Amino acid sequence: MLVITLSLIFVFLSVATASAAELKFPLRANYFLGEIKDDQAFLTDISRYDLLILTPAQIKSHATSIKKIRTLHPGIIILAYVPSQSYNLQYWKSDPVFKNFNNIPDSVWIRDPLGHTIVDSFQVQWANLNTEWNTLLLDFIKKQILTLDIDGIFFDMVSHNISWLNGGYLDFNGDRKKDDPKVIDALWLERTTDLLKKANQDLSTKYIVVNGSSDAQFQKYINGRMFETFPTPWEGDGSWSTVMNRARSGNTVNRHPRLLIFNGNSENTGVRNNYGKFRHGFVSALLQDAYFSYDFGDRDHSQLWWYDEYSTDLGTALGTAVPHNNTIATNLPYGPGVWTREFQNGIALVNTTGQNQRIDLGGEYEKLHGTQDPQVNDGSIVSETQINKDDGLILLRTFSSLNDTLFTNGDFVRFFRTDGSRVRNGFFAFEDTYKGGDQIAHVDLDNNGKRDLIVVAKNKITIMRDDGQLFAKLYPYTAGYPGKIRLAFGDMTGDGNLEIVVAPAEGYPLPVQVYTRFGDILYDNWFPFGKTYSGGYSLGILAPREAESGKVVIGSGTGRDTVVRLYDTNFTLFKEWFAYEKFFKGGVNVAVGDLDSDGKEEIVVGAGVGKKPLIKVFDSTGALKYGEFEAYKALGTPGIDVRVMDVDFDGRKEIVGMSESF
User: Fold this and answer.
1) Which residues 6+ apart lie within 8 Å of 428 measured at CB?
2) Which of 287, 343, 279, 273 lies closest to 310, judged by CA?
3) Rounded CA gap, 153 and 602, in Å?
4) I need a labelling partner for 317 at 20 to 30 A (CA). Which of 387, 436, 573, 661 fits?
5) Quick check: helix, strand or coil at residue 216?
6) DSSP readout, 469-531?
């Protein structure tokens, strides 16, 4: 086993290409040639991918489902599968789309010296790519396929030579003699290039992608290619280095927008849990801005296999791929070694040395909390780690602060799924710029894609723009108010901008108030539990959805029944329920967020002081949605404060439990 050191200087690598800088990783593809189902479960699963390759028949027959997929995943890329050089005798005569590919003359078929057409064991009849075939095929695509709801064409079986077909027993010129392999290979390259050149000229579509060959003559006419069965065994010598270098070189000259796909698979075994093999291909794709798919093999592309790493949002790339011992990002040729790439939220490493490697990371990272391969993705904090040969690894950056939620400086934070299982390791959230006990939120208040800043220091609220300019400075209950402030933010009106709800602490019979980010009062003198109530509040905001207006969520404080209330934007009571037993009067902490990516926000509650740190999740009607769980084993009854945020960058929010001590 070798020991390798990674330098932290990777953070300062040269900036990635402009196109890469716009991408959010990972890029997930599915080479799906099976049947599209119209049920919601299937559509939800398949829409998780960022790129789909589908047959024209399925796209046409399930047009409504395609629209639903696009609704579920705006921006998804859909390519239509088209063989470039053959006709399927078994299926196409009854195919909803290819049945219209007819009146094909005999002059387009490849023949052997005996005059027989070439039909393989899959009942695929091979065309010779002469001018007639190319014209017929492209005309058919324009009339029958580009009219479908697609973003481009995926040409399969694109090759730069043909002498391998039928053992080389081929007759292209019709002289009833076996052709010279060099002659027909040159002719085939010329005709394939002509097909792609004309496709580039004649097909009004965003993407033209091929599968089969990386020949240099093709590259300027296409957006990119798929490397099937990665690392593609027929690509040169089939080595990882060769495939990666050809992927890089071809992509530099492809037409824009460039699109690269790596397809790893089980090599037709159906063994989906070879996680090291999956990670090897997955991380390799990350190195080269490639979409990655993983399925059964070249005999069956119809799986919806999903992996833990797919769910991790790495964010944008911070540089290009580099070998472990390189401190300057240059376009070094890929070769055997440990290669790495830095991302906004983590780091990706792949080991192609043929030996297990021990890596010094040069700092602390956190492994994924995986469910599929817990021996590798065990959630541990590491400064060095082992990467097995022909394997890859995703590591998340550790952090000491939080984004997109309000936290108390110095609190210990824990992260949970809805079943109570741990998502990431807990830590003390602390920012040196502020005092312990200050409340801090880094959140985009004005919907410009940049995080602004809210700081609550005792009785004062300071709201800063992302550029450091002041939005507002508030003393909601005057500068003489001695208590603390409870605060929540959210989009009540649906305009994309966040409102801020403020409430007094326990012991003060003061109103709840609603502000804009500029400090303007939208609603004041609101006493949800009456003007004499002084038990304090917990706050949240439910965003508007469909025909429903936004809601203010109020959790009661101490000294009264522990209830959760929902108020509409007119501050009229909409819904109320007990969070815990009616006799418990220790208060309830509330938080709001979509925990299961169903488009509906849940209400998370944490018990107040006087109970164990118990957490529940309700839907907006007050129905308990998931089972109650205890955040940690506490000696006393400290209760627990709660928040909601995406902590593992998987696009789905998790429950955050906050307490003053570990």
Assistant:
1) 400, 410, 411, 412, 413, 662
2) 279
3) 41
4) 387
5) helix
6) -EEEEE-TT-TT--S-EEEEEE-SSSSSPPEEEEEEPTT----EEEE-TTS-EEEEEE-TT-T
Q: What is the mean pLDDT of the chain?
A: 93
The single-letter DSSP state of residue 495 is S
First CA to last CA across the chain, in angstroms? 38
**What does each C-alpha distance from 9 to 17, 25, 112, 328 come to in angstroms?**
19, 21, 60, 8
What does the pLDDT look like over 15-53, one tens digit per residue? Answer: 333 355 578 999 999 999 999 999 999 999 999 999 999
Q: Could you tell me how many residues make up the chain?
A: 662
Q: Reduced to 3 DSSP states, what percent helix, strand and coil does the chain have, rounded to the nearest 5? A: 20, 35, 50
Query: At 179, which amino acid appears?
Result: D
Parallel, antiparallel, or unpaired for β 29-31 and 51-54?
parallel
User: In what helix (H) or strand (E) does residue 190 lie, and over which residues does it extend?
Assistant: helix 181-202
* CB-based contacts of 269, cutoff 8 Å, min separation 6: 297
Rounded distance, CA 87 to CA 95, Å?
12
Residue 416, judged by CB atoms within 10 A of its CB (0-12, 13-18, 19+), counts as buried
User: 28: which DSSP letter?
Assistant: B
Q: What phi and psi values does residue 78 have, to the nearest 5 degrees?
A: -120, 120
Q: What is the pLDDT of residues 257-294, one digit of tens each?
A: 999 999 999 999 999 999 999 999 999 999 999 999 99
What does the pLDDT read at residue 1?
Answer: 41
Question: One-letter amino acid identity for 28?
Answer: R
List of E strands, 21-121? 29-31, 51-54, 77-83, 86-88
Helix (H, G, I), strand (E, B) or coil at 189: helix
Position 328 scores a pLDDT of: 58
Residues 6+ apart with CB under 8 A from 627: 419, 420
DSSP string, 458-472: TTEEEEE-TTS-EEE
Report the C-alpha gap between 11 and 7 in whole angstroms. 9
Peptide bond between residue 257 and the one before it cis (omega within 30 degrees of 0): yes
CA–CA gap between residue 100 and residue 229 (Å, rounded) = 31
- SS3 category, 187: helix
What is d(CA 12, CA 443) in angstroms, rounded to the nearest whole number?
A: 26
Helical pair 240-251 and 275-287, crossing angle rounded to 10 deg: 30
